[in-house]
């Protein structure tokens, strides 16, 4: 029947009723369709069909293998799909499929006539076409898909060496197929089609050294246990090995051309060790997240070690999410410039060796790292000016935090839910403290935090110190603001999509967030504010206005907030320290043991030094001893 359909299609094309093309796949878009081709294996009875094309680049003909018929299995008693499925699941019916490396192409060269006598004795003349000897075309494209239930009986499939492109979901959901064999000398360059080997029973696969591309979701959900990527590999599609829950071993050491590990490429596998090769520059979103397996109904997190290659430049969101057994010091190569939010969320690391890279300007991606302590933040490189959104939130190893002077912005939620944080020092340099930056840090209750004169903006919920778990408000908090022109940035966001940590206050017309509320000190029952009385324009200081407006207000939790404002009279005095630049010399100024950020004045470097504290300037030049200059506090 299928042969008849093919003949009718060819006839329609020859008569001009259909365009001379096929619905198959080609090596190049410009390759031209020649004819339909087919061949029946005399040993198995399997029928293989496809299309013949002319290569637009070389002029040579090749075949696309697009159809395999297992019709020999269709015994009369297999009348329903359930019958076929039951037959295929019987081990006695299992078979191994070897795809042909060539398909015959023939052309009609003429006709001959035969005579035949019908039932009435009439002599009939029958026209019989004459074909040329077959020209065997190499199968260079594989676009066959096994959709019928017979596929469940296929234990293995052998792909001929001539195939350069796999461009269909060839073994999609073939759970009974445990082995894919590439013939020796394989020329395979691309597995380009989405879901090519998805949900197969393949345990291991020897990928050819010619393979350059593996497409999106190609092996998703397969039974792979180990994998070696070939040296020829240049590109992976997203989710290419996603949910390969048995995959424990990954060897990328041969890779020299692979630039990016794409989004969720190895998410939800069970890798025990990851070594990123030096050729990789980008690690995509969720690329190695959730390395785990189930043991006796319990989740076991498998990843134990992580080594980043020397040229990794970007580590994107959730790249190594939930890796609690990756411990010790995380070494970030100097090539790293970008770490996105949550990149190392839930990792067990206790320290970070930061990159020495002027392009690394934002520290982010280490939320919910319970072992990460104060020293990692103290040693942030001078290139970093921003602590990113949720960068170190819920890091309960942080207890006594000093924000270095080269930090300009502490972004939203940067240290939120650091429940053991009980001392906070902000060195001069910080300009903006973002929304919820220190929210749910209950041990700051009863403590004093001083905002240096450089702080210009304090956003909503920045010091809403409520205990997130007990939902209890913190009794007291003291804030000293040295900048007369400090601005309080109100929260304009409306919380209308309620979830477990949102609160509806009776009588209110909208949802209110119980952690942040609508101002910088929400859910604090007692606030002591110290600031200059007026700003540089002679107007009341923003904190004074805030205290007047919000004092003795009833909060949605039923508590009454008491806010007291006090004039700050003991303001520190700052002086400018100037040093002329010298070629090849690096100058560092420290006060109280902390490095202070400098301002580049072209020919000079300047610092703002606090009166009453010794100034130490260190001059460093390669090949020479460090020279230290000290100006005593009394000299100011």
Feature tags:
single chain; 636 residues; mainly beta; six-stranded parallel β-sheet; 6% helix; elongated; disordered N terminus
Describe this structure in words.
The structure is a single chain. The strands form 13 sheets. Strands 1, 2, 3, 5, 8, 10, 12, 13 and 15 form a nine-stranded mixed beta sheet that branches. The chain has a six-stranded parallel beta sheet with strand order 27-28-30-32-34-36, with no helix packed on it. The model is unreliable at 1-23 and 493-518 (pLDDT under 50). With 636 residues, it is mainly β. The protein is elongated. Strand 45 (615-620) and strand 46 form a beta hairpin. The longest helix has 13 residues, at 2-14. 6% of the residues lie in helices and 32% in strands.
Lay out the secondary structure.
Layout: H1 2-14, E1 32-40, E2 47-54, E3 61-69, H2 81-89, E4 95-98, E5 102-105, E6 108-117, E7 123-131, E8 135-142, E9 154-159, E10 165-166, E11 179-182, E12 190-191, E13 213-214, E14 226-228, E15 235-236, E16 249-251, E17 260-261, E18 273-275, E19 282-283, E20 292-295, E21 298-301, E22 305-307, E23 314-315, E24 327-331, E25 338-339, E26 348-353, E27 362-363, H3 374-378, E28 386-387, E29 400-403, E30 409-410, E31 423-426, E32 432-433, E33 448-451, E34 457-459, E35 474-481, E36 487-489, E37 524-531, H4 542-550, E38 553-554, E39 560-567, E40 574-580, E41 586-591, E42 594-596, E43 599-600, E44 604-610, E45 615-620, E46 627-631
Parallel strand pairs: 3-8, 4-9, 8-10, 9-11, 10-12, 12-13, 13-15, 14-16, 17-19, 18-22, 19-23, 23-25, 24-26, 27-28, 28-30, 29-31, 30-32, 32-34, 33-35, 34-36, 35-37, 37-39
Antiparallel strand pairs: 1-2, 2-3, 5-8, 6-7, 20-21, 38-39, 40-44, 41-42, 41-45, 43-44, 45-46
